[in-house]
Write a structure and sequence with these properties.
- This protein is mostly helical.
- Helix content is 82%, strand content 0%.
- The protein has helices at 2-17, 20-49, 53-73, 83-107, 112-140, 143-173, 179-205, 211-217, 221-225, 232-246, 249-260, 267-283, 291-317, 321-353, 359-369, 374-418.
Length: 429
């Protein structure tokens, strides 16, 4: 707790001299608030129009497809643009998309075809906006602020994700007509519009890295060592984490809540927030400078997640209901803490180590290995749940994480021998 307060106090002190960190954090907070309304309203709207869960999956798949196309077809496209300028235009497109959904829903002109079209356009925008936003952190913040800023953002986002869906869901469920859904899309549009002046101010202030600042800093040994692509083995670790540790949570939690149908299991959300807060406290320290140390931290998070899935599998077989929901809450709290500690540390290292001239390319890889791979994890784990029930799926995930840690051990040992502190080992891919 004291470490998190120290990170926030440090950001506040520096924010008085350089407001870029405050602008980025406020921008993320405002857009997270607005997105909560769309995340609740869109499934309600799709189910009201078609009544088929398949359409929900189709919308999610359509939104994820453009990020994969961007990765394999246009990897270096983002390096040609200022990420803040690109982010501003993406946010402006989001305002237009949400405004169209709000007006069409309010007037009754909405249809499943229009939702598919908006999902495709929104997926194209998101494929650019997500890596551009992560690149802004790496270019517009000092290296020493990356870990504290990512930690504070994780805690603020967790609090918003805990409270905002409850507020948005309450407003939507308060009436049966389409006007509440239209109002939810309108709230998201207004929030994104409010973020545009913050991005514009960030652009006027200019980056810390890149441009003239990047050329000045390029004389440092740390910058010269980072002036090559991040090894692709790093993204393989991220992909394994998404498929085995982070992604499955997105489907295991709702399935558990639906099957148990017990209000006591809502304590899982509080446990997740506690795990995220604790992980942010630990991860707020300075990001590791060596890739070997970063990957070692990822493997340790795999082991922690394996313990969480094992505890979750045991909770499904516990005889006492009281012990079952407590074990489930502890399991999801451990999983949330492990995934967020890994996320903060690995992203901070990437933003710190990536060459400013290749920041867009690296963030494209990062978004594909994390957010882009999440639908694959949910589809695979959903099939496992249908065949093995959620307890069996959790047990197999625990075993898979242990096997992945054993397979990664030789690579980590080789990397530690081949890599000097603060440098990226040549040929590590």
């Amino acid at each position: 707790m004291s470490a998190r307060r120290g990170a926030a106090a440090r950001l506040l002190r520096i924010g008085r001299r350089d407001p870029r960190a405050a602008w980025l954090l406020l921008d993320n907070l405002i857009t997270t608030f607005g997105a909560a309304f769309t995340l609740i309203a869109l499934p309600f709207l799709v189910m009201r129009l078609s009544g088929r869960a398949l359409d929900l999956g189709a919308v999610a798949a359509i939104e994820a497809l453009p990020s994969l196309i961007l990765l394999f077809g246009f990897r270096g496209a983002l390096d040609r643009f200022d990420p803040a300028r690109l982010l501003w235009w993406c946010r402006a497109c989001y305002v237009a998309i949400n405004a169209v959904l709000a007006v069409a829903t309010w007037t009754g002109a909405i249809g499943i075809g229009l939702i598919y079209a908006m999902a495709l356009i929104g997926g194209c925008v998101w494929a650019l906006a997500y890596p551009a936003g992560r690149a802004c952190f790496g270019l517009y913040l000092r290296r020493g602020l990356l870990a504290p800023a990512n930690a504070v953002f994780a805690v603020v986002s967790a609090a918003a994700n805990l409270a905002m869906p409850m507020l948005a869901g309450g407003l939507i469920l308060a009436a049966s007509g389409p006007h509440r859904l239209a109002a939810a899309f309108a709230v998201d549009a207004v929030c994104v519009a409010l973020s545009l002046p913050l991005i514009a101010a960030l652009r006027r202030r200019g980056p810390v890295r890149g441009g003239d600042a990047g050329r000045t800093q390029a004389t440092n040994a740390d910058e010269r060592s980072a002036a090559r692509d991040i090894p692709r083995s790093y993204y393989l670790y991220l992909l394994a984490t998404t498929l085995l540790a982070v992604g499955p949570i997105q489907i295991l939690l709702p399935v558990l809540l639906v099957q148990r149908h017990d209000p006591r299991y809502l304590a899982i959300y509080a446990a997740q927030f506690a795990g995220i807060a604790l992980a942010a406290t630990i991860a707020a320290r300075r990001a590791p400078t060596a890739m070997a140390a970063t990957l070692q931290g990822i493997v340790l998070c795999w082991l922690a997640a394996a313990c969480g899935y094992a505890l979750l599998a045991w909770s499904g077989r516990a005889d006492a209901e009281h012990a079952a929901w407590i074990a489930a809450a502890l399991a999801f709290g451990l999983l949330a803490g492990a995934s967020n500690h890994y996320g903060i540390r690995s992203l901070s290292w990437l933003q710190r180590s990536a060459d400013a001239r290749r920041m867009g390319r690296e963030m494209t890889w990062f978004s594909a290995a994390t957010m882009g791979a999440t639908p694959l994890a949910t589809l695979a784990v959903g099939a496992m749940i249908d065949r093995l029930r959620w307890t069996g799926a959790a047990q197999w995930l625990a075993l898979a994480l242990l096997a992945a840690a054993l397979l990664a051990a030789p690579h980590l040992l080789w990397l530690k021998r081949a890599q000097t502190p603060g440098a990226i080992a040549p040929g590590a891919a």
